[in-house]
Amino acid sequence: MGPPGAVPAEGGQDCADLSVLVRCAAGYCDGQASAMIRYVLGRFLSLVLSLVVASIVIFAVIEVIPGDPASFMLGVNARADTLAALRAEMGLDQPLPVRYFAWVTGLLTGDFGNSWTYKTPVAELVSDRIWVSLPLAIYALILSTLIAFPAGIYAASRRGSAGDVTIMGATQLGVAIPNFWFAMILVLIFAINLRWFSAGGFPGWDNPMQALKALTLPAIALALPQAAILARVMRSSLLDMLGEDFIRTVRAKGLSRRQALWRHAVRNALIPVLTIIGLQFSFLLAGGIIIEQVFFLPGLGRLIFQSISARDLIVVESVVMLLVFTVIVVNFLVDLAYAAVDPRLRRKA
Amino acid sequence: MKAIKPLLTAGALALTAGLASAQTDITVAIQLEPPNLDPTGGAAQAIDSVLYSNVFEGLTRFEGDGSVVPGLAESWEISDDGTVYTFKLHDGVNFHDGTTMDAEDVKFSLDRARADDSTNAQKGLFAGITDVTVIDPLTVQVTLDGPNGMFLFNMAWGDAVIVAPESIEDIASNPVGTGAFTFADWVQGDRLELARNENYWGDAPALENATFRFISDPTAAFAAVMAEDVDVFVGFPAPENLPQFEADPRFQVLVGNTEGETILSTNNKMPPFDNKLVRQAVAHAIDRQAIIDGAMFGLGTPIGTHFAPHNPDYVDLLANSPYDPAKAKELLAEAGFADGFTTTLKLPPPSYARRGGEIIASQLREVGIQAEISNLEWAQWIEEVFKGKDFGLSIVSHTEPMDIGIYANPDYYFQYDNPDFQALMEELNATTDPAGRSDLLAKAQTIISEDYVNGYLFELAVATVAKAGVQGLWVNQPTAAVDLTVVSWAE
Amino acid sequence: MSRGLIIGAALSVVFVVLAALSFIWTPFDIETLNIPNKLKPPSGAHWLGTDHFGRDILSMIMMGARTSIAVALLAVGIGMAVGVPLGLLAAARHGSLLDELIMRGNDLVFAFPSLVIAILITAVFGASAVNAIIAIGIFNVPVFARLTRGAALPLWERDFILAARVCGKSAARISVEHILPNITNLMIVQGTIQFSLGILAEAALSYIGLGAQPPTASWGRMLADAQTLVSIAPHTALVPGFAILLMVLGLNLLGDGLRDWLDPRIRVARV
């Protein structure tokens, strides 16, 4: 067992790369470049491993779901021979490992297979649905940012004021509200009573204004709790920044608190905020299931939900894998971006 | 006089405007989206809801009142022994892709449905067919292995529609039929569009375009109708909201009957339900009216046997099992379960089952029976209850028309095995004269009612909510269908 | 003590008391349905009205509080019981392959969309309160593992730990005797936050029918049952919604208040 916290930074050993050699010669050799390469490679390796493990887990879990897909499709009056014929058609008579490898090879070559129920390629289904889920996630993210940034900055700049207390109180409510309940209330008020918006459904992107309008209530329902979290993060990281030395320095140079806040603190406070936004984005992409259900939007979440109850396993597997893939890759990119920005991080890691 | 003329002109203008603006498109919502568009390859009722009669037609077809009328076959002759049906087809019928519909297509469709590798969900409908012969392009002869009083009825099912070999390959995503509407577009997860078939062989429909939308969530359904996002909702999922629509002049509410006998399915082979006294006790423990009021908000007709009350052959046997918890307790004591017992109550997703199940569990608790509820998805229900027969009680609506024959199959999931009843059903199948059939059906209903095979709850009702101006909708659901061919807007 | 802490503690206590009380007494029996008495607005007899089966909603809220608290508490328990030891282990073996495995495993769990996995779990094992606990608990594990490791790492470099090492204490003993007591406050604060998230998750799961099964009352299912009734009998949807809102609000205020009170430097994860 190595002593904790004392990972030796082995510098300079792998300076094979020419540019590194040059920098070594120039006296900059602290192992940074090679450490960077090793870091990236390590991260990449674990990315690949994660994906392999994820694919096995997803396949295993989904395959043991009770309920025969063929029986579901053919209903209660189906005869045994009819069921057998359909199972053979769907490839369900093959052994599990064979089906796993067929699935994974398919994924690698971009062939997601054919949906059993819809009888159309999964890739087509997904690409249709993603044009609902992705814009919805982005819309919600923009809304939540638009609400959270001003609220967080205002609260931080007037810490302890009535405005700050009100905003923080509101964010406590925002964090505590169940979003599906909020969605129900929104529908009741704005669709049924006021009839400003349609109660749900998605008209397609042929008419972008109509499409945006249809996504507005769902986006608000999704955005509000996220905005509450984001506003709190924004406020607290701003307050942290305001306590930092460099802010004191610029204030000593004569900048007012507000000027210091806007010119220096906000920019620096963005790093933790952007992390949260990144995390929220993947949450919004996959987590809209219930909201998509309330507003009957034809998005990815509802596709998964419907496919599970229809036992359209191939769709479930592929869509869940796609979501996990997205999250893992986004995390990978975030890690890299951090490492690029802050060398300390990769040494710690 | 001068003043009157402009008025008249204005009136005439208004009139023409009115005529011109009579709406020719409609948006119809149903609960479930069809998984694919092949009515001959899956059990999903939603396929028929969208396509039956609109896109696909069979030799015969159902009318809104449940009667069977000529479809693509304009007439037929039945041989004296009842085994050979000779169908005369309509002349000049084309599929939507322009190919003609003739006897070869009929032969293809029927042979395909009964083939070994057929994936037809109702293959049993075609079981008796031994041969299909093309006599000439407009005449086709179907030979059965014995007389079958139900054959013309069977041929009206959505699973027996006529398809063409030219377009069968893509039928699941691009259905090509002979009906009054052609398939136009399907945005999966959201809507499906039909357009008027300008070359339809029959009477042209009033509508030019129809859009189906799929809304299973009851709240969303309510909101969509209230917000007038949809013009019609067939099979509205939340009966509790109907009074609000009835009170609103913008809407009309049609309540009709279905072929769905909703029963408390009982596993007749699993102790203690193998004891008739226990089943009888359960029957007396159930308060049907409370279930209809509590689960369906009053929608539904109580039944005392497995038969549709609107059928002329229905026998009212409610007197066999009135609500009487005291008697239920006595019967349980007599059966040796004075302290009650514990069993399972496995419920599929529809609200009649989920809500009805909670009510029944509470009613059974009153007489000492602990029914542990587990809510299942359909796929699980089919696996555990229907195929696995691993259940004590379940609630399900048997929506196939005229399905009392399931009680003659001892392997059917509720496992009722009564040789007398089986003999009776064989006699029924061989009987073609209406009076004799009526008699046998009455006997059959009485046997299963007095054997307390299942708890008979109520006949499922169907509610259609539509905008006030829509006319020609089916009120009843003799089969799962939204027949738009005669639907129009009032001017 | 801050005002938030007091309000939060008060709200939390109210719900815990209601839940505890339900074991011995509720205003009405909720197992007996009274259908003719359905959808009555709040009145002297039924303070919060009745639901679609004529049951007393206050009694349902009390029983539902019991379900929510039990599910969320056990889910946090799972998260702590598994996550904290993993985090301690990872910190003790910092930089080793084991550490890397644990942390990558954490990332992997985080990468799965939690609601989807919960749905899959219930699809495999059936819908029940126990499976809801497991589904929520799994996603609590990486939260606690990561937090524990993060808090333990700097401690390992502190002098008192070095002293203990010099004395020849094993890493396991040090973790338990010296590290753990120093991160207890942090665990309490994060535990409160996860508890409130657990309440929300339980509500969401039972709203889509995957939580506790009837006749066990649950707030999420009360909302699901009420959603078509919202325009006829708004109280049926408003009451359970506010119950969730207040309980979660109370726990969050309590968590934040505890943090400020116990140790203002503590940082909690709230995702």
TrEMBL record, chain A:
GO terms for cellular component: plasma membrane. Its main location: membrane. It is found in: Cell membrane. Residues 130-334 form the ABC transmembrane type-1 domain. GO terms for molecular function: dipeptide transmembrane transporter activity. Keywords: Cell membrane, Membrane, Transmembrane, Transmembrane helix, Transport. The chain crosses the membrane at residues 44-65, 136-155, 167-192, 212-231, 269-291, 319-341. It is a multi-pass membrane protein. SUPFAM superfamilies: MetI-like (SSF161098). Pfam families: BPD_transp_1, BPD_transp_1_N. Belongs to the binding-protein-dependent transport system permease family. This is Peptide/nickel transport system permease protein. The lineage of its organism: Bacteria, Pseudomonadati, Pseudomonadota, Alphaproteobacteria, Rhodobacterales.
Automatic annotation (TrEMBL), chain B:
Keywords: Signal. Residues 68-398 form the Solute-binding protein family domain. Transmembrane segments: none annotated. One of its GO terms (molecular function) is peptide transmembrane transporter activity. It is found in: Periplasm. Its main location: periplasm. Residues 1-22 form the signal peptide. GO terms for biological process: peptide transport. One of its GO terms (cellular component) is outer membrane-bounded periplasmic space. PANTHER family: D,D-DIPEPTIDE-BINDING PERIPLASMIC PROTEIN DDPA-RELATED, PERIPLASMIC BINDING COMPONENT OF ABC TRANSPORTER. Belongs to the bacterial solute-binding protein 5 family. This is Peptide/nickel transport system substrate-binding protein. It comes from Yoonia sediminilitoris. The lineage of its organism: Bacteria, Pseudomonadati, Pseudomonadota, Alphaproteobacteria, Rhodobacterales.
Automatic annotation (TrEMBL), chain C:
The chain crosses the membrane at residues 6-28, 69-92, 112-139, 195-212, 232-255. The keyword DNA repair does not apply. Keywords: Cell membrane, Membrane, Transmembrane, Transmembrane helix, Transport. Pfam families: BPD_transp_1 (PF00528). It comes from the Bacteria. GO terms for biological process: transmembrane transport. GO terms for cellular component: plasma membrane. Its main location: membrane. Coiled coil: none annotated. It is a multi-pass membrane protein. Residues 65-255 form the ABC transmembrane type-1 domain. InterPro entries: BP-dependent_transpt_permease, MetI-like, MetI-like_sf. It is found in: Cell membrane. PANTHER family: OLIGOPEPTIDE TRANSPORT SYSTEM PERMEASE PROTEIN APPC (PTHR43386), PEPTIDE ABC TRANSPORTER PERMEASE PROTEIN (PTHR43386:SF25). Belongs to the binding-protein-dependent transport system permease family. This is Peptide/nickel transport system permease protein. It comes from Yoonia sediminilitoris.
